[in-house]
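User: structure tokens for this one?
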Amino acid sequence: MLFAQNIKFLRKRKDRTQDEVAEALGMKRSTLSGYENEVAMPAIPALIQFSDYYGIAVDTLVKVDLTALNGHQLYMLEHGEDVFLRGGKLRVLATTVDRQNRDNIELVPEKAKAGYTRGFFDPEYINELPRYQLPFLPPDRKYRTFQISGDSMLPIPEGAWVTGEFVQDWLSLPDGEACIVLTLDEGIVFKIVENKIRGDGTLRLISLNPVYEPYSVNVAEVREIWRFVNYTSNEIPTGNLSGEMIGRALYDIRSDLRDIKGKLL
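Assistant:
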């Protein structure tokens, strides 16, 4: 159980003494010291006290190694983004930081995609990826850049580098967002996402290029979602941009037809 190291870590992170925390919780300092040093095990009421005091779910305090989380993940926990509170599982993201403890943006080139599908959760693998910084992006979020392949998202060309923001709460992802999605079967794909998790537990993935048919993936097959932020390419988009326009129009038409069908039924 990770409870002892977690409450000690949180206390020190907030720069508080044992006396201060014990007083706030209405317990003796020796009792708190016993919990932190695993001399004594807290009862359920004490666990709830710690949970309320730090604003972190009991499951998280007991099951998740908070010392292994990066600054972005700790920030999310401390600002109410603890998915254990909603009955889910905390998605612990393997990442790297620079010398100032700022999150890097790791680069996943085309040749590394297969390895990423198998090693996205492995800190050693992530540490081997190229990394860089984009100073104009908000520092309290986590980003990663992927090289895309194929023409399904034209006019964004094949070989472009797409940067995405890590999505922790999939339920809150709005329809129509362009996202990098990592799945067990498909690997890394870049698509427009229609969020149907609350309905049938799926994500509907739609290409900008109308030649490609939309398809659905079960959320159980999904491992990561990165919301589109920007892209970089050494190619200037050429030709008629109607592919994007048609793709967007088809998406809107499908949504309208579903609404009309629902009202008729």
